[in-house]
């Protein structure tokens, strides 16, 4: 029983096997995941699930019965330990499995603070898996002190949950501003105000020097500027690295994750990759996206190509983040922008990124219409007129005409 | 619990029982019914769980909130009365007999 084997049972792996079946592939299909649960969605882990507003079963992307009904062999709690492209074989411990075609959807690994900085102290958490969050959730008790290292989306979402639950929350960001890597200053400013209004202390441009644990638990966060912040627990949101260990050990080309061509094929013709672990050619570089959109769209593209479609992956990236009652929705990628147009009407606000006159991306805050319009314009490769955009009297729909 | 009929764009009908507290989107997802993609998993962030509700049900469902309204405004061929995002409709006994129709495509 060779057939198609998919390694990594997360958002991309689940989308890939479902698409293969939807496209009519009826050969043997195996999905292998290291975690003890069927594929699930991660976004609620730092939102509704952490708040205690969502049961675990509702995280699952499909009920377990789906895989059985579709003739998909789902193997959970099993890490693939080696890949042998020459033999077209993978290994799980001392067990081997042959494949005709293989897809790597292994995701990413959260960055940890080095042990020398206190990264392995009790009470220091990362936020990637269900197990991580189940371990961390009992810490969220009103009145306790929480320090978040890293003002990216995951750190800010965790901070929002903490504040909502009545904790004393401090966010420590090394860069001059939160969200520096992913958003314009206008969006950072908006988020800073949002969190400050909820009582969160944001310290920007203040690198962490080290964490010190007293009695194993009482944690002191020493900042580079000499300040010391006391915490009962710490949440690290300092980014992720693509999980390319298997591919690297197998000699596949690595370039910002597992390098694929436009079709999602790696340097080995029988091995494909998609999701957080994979990079693809985009505007002259090997681009890697960390989002649900990318996991689904790239996986579905790879599924089609495994069946011979030969279609390139050309995404319109989108993303969202929920903090308090504010919904941020992003369409496009703002990198390389030289101008930001702010549009405001009532509680709806949107930031439109332009580069050399071309519309690149929109950050929409409590403004789903701006997000939907921006996404459509990007799909059609059109740039709205900045002056009309900035005028709240102009209806967004008119910008489509 | 509610018995819900999902009608694919090609006319194929799926009749399933969905537990209270779930959403109409989750009812489709958990029963492998094609046509509702639900990329964002129910966060009201993607609009790929759009359906047209049977006319008889339009008035009986809880009204759309502003967020759903705005997302639908830019969905694929929305209908002013009948369009809904299924992830925003919670199932209860009152929804027994609900019938929804899938659009030709989601985006
Ligand atoms: C807390 C949190 C909140 C997020 N919020 C948002 C959001 O609001 N919006 C958004 O768009 N994105 C969000 N994301 C990002 C999004 O969840 C990821 O981009 C997406 O999950 C990537 O899918 P993937 O399949 O590539 O990786 P994953 O979903 O991580 O799946 C990879 C799986 O592969 C398994 N694996 C790895 N190596 C092996 C091996 N050798 N053998 C077997 N199994 C293996 C891993 O255990 C894992 O289960 C969030 C992520 C997190 C962690
Ligand atoms: S599932 Fe994304 S909006 Fe309903």
TrEMBL record, chain A:
Residues covered by the FAD/NAD(P)-binding domain: 4-299
GO molecular function term, any single one: oxidoreductase activity, acting on NAD(P)H
Cofactor(s) this protein requires: FAD
Domain annotation Reductase C-terminal: ranges: 318-400
GO CC field: cytoplasm
UniProt-listed Pfam families: Pyr_redox_2 (PF07992), Reductase_C (PF14759)
Keywords assigned by UniProt, alphabetized: FAD, Flavoprotein, Oxidoreductase
Protein name as it appears in the record: FAD-dependent oxidoreductase
Species this chain originates from: Rhabdonatronobacter sediminivivens
Phylogenetic classification of the source organism: Bacteria, Pseudomonadati, Pseudomonadota, Alphaproteobacteria, Rhodobacterales
From TrEMBL, chain B:
PROSITE patterns for the chain: 2FE2S_FER_2, ADX
GO BP, one annotated term: P450-containing electron transport chain
InterPro entries referenced in this protein's UniProt entry, alphabetically: 2Fe-2S_ferredoxin-like_sf, 2Fe-2S_ferredoxin-type, Adrenodoxin-like, Adrenodoxin_Fe-S_BS, Beta-grasp_dom_sf
Keywords, ordered alphabetically: 2Fe-2S, Iron, Iron-sulfur, Metal-binding
Source species, domain of life: Bacteria
Cofactor(s), by name: [2Fe-2S] cluster
UniProt GO molecular function: 2 iron, 2 sulfur cluster binding; electron transfer activity; metal ion binding
Keyword Iron-sulfur: yes
Domain 2Fe-2S ferredoxin-type: 2-106
Family classification: Belongs to the adrenodoxin/putidaredoxin family.
Record's protein name: 2Fe-2S iron-sulfur cluster binding domain-containing protein
Species per Swiss-Prot/TrEMBL record: Rhabdonatronobacter sediminivivens
């Amino acid at each position: 029983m060779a057939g198609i084997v998919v390694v990594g049972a997360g958002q991309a792996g689940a989308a890939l096997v479902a698409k293969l079946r939807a496209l009519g592939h009826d050969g043997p299909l195996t999905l292998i995941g290291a975690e003890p649960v069927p594929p699930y969605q991660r976004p609620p882990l730092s939102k509704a699930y952490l708040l205690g507003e969502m049961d675990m079963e509702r995280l699952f992307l499909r009920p377990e019965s789906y895989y059985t009904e579709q003739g998909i062999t789902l193997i959970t709690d099993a890490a693939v330990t080696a890949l042998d492209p020459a033999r077209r074989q993978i290994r799980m411990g001392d067990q081997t499995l042959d494949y005709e075609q293989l897809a790597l959807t292994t995701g990413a690994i959260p960055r940890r603070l080095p042990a020398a900085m206190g990264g392995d102290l009790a009470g220091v958490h990362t936020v990637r898996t269900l197990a991580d969050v189940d371990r961390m959730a009992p810490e969220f008790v009103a009145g306790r002190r929480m320090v978040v290292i890293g003002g990216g989306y995951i750190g800010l979402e965790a901070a929002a949950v903490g504040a909502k639950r009545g904790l004393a929350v401090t966010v420590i960001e090394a860069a001059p501003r939160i969200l520096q890597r992913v958003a314009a200053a206008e969006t950072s400013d908006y988020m800073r105000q949002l969190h400050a209004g909820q009582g969160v202390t944001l310290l920007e441009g203040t690198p962490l020097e080290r964490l010190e644990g007293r009695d194993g638990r009482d944690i002191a966060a020493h900042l580079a500027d000499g300040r010391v912040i006391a915490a009962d627990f710490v949440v690290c949101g300092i980014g992720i690295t693509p999980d390319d260990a298997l591919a690297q050990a197998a000699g596949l080309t690595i370039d910002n994750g597992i390098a694929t061509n436009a079709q999602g094929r790696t340097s080995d013709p029988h091995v494909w990759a998609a999701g957080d672990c994979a990079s693809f050619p985009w505007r002259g570089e090997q681009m890697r996206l960390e989002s649900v959109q990318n996991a689904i769209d790239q996986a579905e593209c790879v599924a089609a190509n495994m069946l011979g479609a030969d279609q390139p992956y050309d995404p319109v990236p989108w993303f969202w983040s929920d903090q308090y009652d504010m919904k941020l929705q992003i369409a496009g990628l703002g990198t390389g922008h030289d101008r930001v147009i702010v549009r405001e009407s009532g509680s709806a606000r949107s930031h439109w990124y332009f580069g050399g006159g071309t519309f690149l991306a929109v950050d929409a805050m409590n403004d789903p219409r701006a997000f939907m319009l921006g996404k459509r314009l990007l799909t059609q490769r059109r740039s709205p007129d900045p002056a009309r955009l900035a005028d709240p009297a102009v209806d967004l729909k008119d910008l489509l005409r | 619990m509610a018995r819900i009929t999902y009608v694919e764009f090609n006319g194929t009908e799926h009749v399933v029982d969905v537990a209270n507290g779930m959403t109409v989107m989750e009812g489709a997802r958990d029963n492998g019914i094609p046509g509702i993609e639900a990329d964002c998993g129910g966060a009201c962030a993607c609009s790929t769980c759009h359906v047209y509700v049977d006319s008889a049900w339009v008035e009986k469902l809880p009204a759309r909130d502003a967020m759903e309204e705005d997302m639908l405004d830019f969905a694929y061929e929305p209908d002013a009365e009948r369009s809904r995002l299924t992830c925003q409709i919670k199932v209860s006994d009152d929804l027994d007999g609900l019938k929804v129709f899938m659009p030709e495509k989601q985006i």
